[in-house]
Design a protein that fits this description.
single chain; mainly alpha; 2 domains; 10 helices; 76% helix; 0% strand
């Protein structure tokens, strides 16, 4: 049986090939998205990129849904599947696509929910970072990037009707969870672990790349924690479906909270953190739950379940 083109490449070259494949597929899928949005809505986002931020026009939300969907397919899902097919005669095995026990899926989802107060606390700490005066220009640029990155998600997730909420779950939770986990845990973590000889290094380096990929400086620390947690869930469970389930749970809970806030059913304070007694007490309780769940999942690994 002939070997696959990428099978014998060294780990560093595999990483380069994976990034090249991802950006090539992204370009192709963005051209496809451009054709679709031009055909349906007459929107040329390549020629007038600022126009897609005119969220007062209802159809611009649909344009952005299309862009996000094609972006995740092109940057993550398709490259991961293509790379694995070019690297192994058993691509699904390479990606860790073996069945997951329900107890692992439920446990992974619960541990991600328990981690959310800690993630909010880290986000608060990250947002409090202040640059020296001579780096004021960089700080303003990073804050502007953060504002633009969060604006679209907030607009999409705050639509106070069920159809938009269901589309959000697909575009902002299901597809990213599958695509990002296939790339960062299914491929990059394993490649880096093979290169360094350490699964721990594979977990943390892939988590750092995962966080950096979002290009949001003020969200780097919480995403680093989430990326590491997802990496350990993959290493312990030995199936990609567990971090996918955990990633989906994290995104879905965040979207649900934003939806409920948008409808006025709950207060925006529920999804925030302030260094006050109530939030600190809740943080300690969530840390205890988080630690207990992580310990339980680790015991499942050691017991072979």
């Amino acid at each position: 049986m002939r070997s696959r083109p990428f099978a014998s490449a060294d780990p560093f070259l595999k990483i380069i090939l994976l990034f090249l494949l991802s950006f090539t597929c992204l370009g192709v899928f963005m051209l496809m998205a451009q054709g679709l949005t031009t055909l349906i809505w007459g929107v040329d986002f390549f020629g007038a990129s600022e126009s897609i931020r005119d969220y007062d026009k209802p159809y611009m939300l649909h344009v952005n849904y299309v862009l996000l969907f094609f972006q995740h397919l092109g940057l993550f899902v398709v490259p991961a599947l293509a790379f694995s097919a070019l690297s192994s005669h058993e691509p699904y095995k390479l990606l860790g696509m073996k069945p997951a026990r329900p107890i692992w899926l439920i446990g992974a989802a619960l541990v991600m929910v328990a981690a959310m107060p800690t993630v909010n606390a880290l986000a608060w700490m990250n947002s409090a970072v202040s640059f020296p005066e001579f780096l004021g220009g960089l700080e303003r640029a990073l804050q502007e990037m953060e504002s633009q990155a969060g604006a679209l998600t907030e607009v999409l997730a705050s639509r106070a009707d069920l159809p938009h909420f269901l589309v959000n779950l697909l575009v902002l939770a299901v597809v990213p969870a599958i695509g990002e986990e296939l790339i960062f845990r299914g491929l990059l973590l394993r490649i880096i672990a093979s290169w360094t000889g350490s699964k721990t290094k594979g977990v943390w380096i892939s988590a750092a790349l995962f966080s950096a990929m979002h290009m949001q400086f003020y969200g780097f620390l919480p995403r680093l924690l989430l990326g590491a947690l997802l990496g350990y869930l993959f290493v312990w469970s030995r199936t990609i479906w567990v971090p996918i389930a955990a990633h989906f749970a994290n995104n879905a809970v965040a979207l649900t909270l934003m939806y409920l806030i948008g409808t006025g059913m709950i207060s925006a304070e529920v999804d925030s953190f302030e260094p006050e007694f109530g939030d600190l007490a809740f943080l300690l309780l969530s840390l205890a739950a988080f630690g207990g769940l992580v310990f339980w999942l680790r015991r499942l690994t050691l017991s072979g379940k």
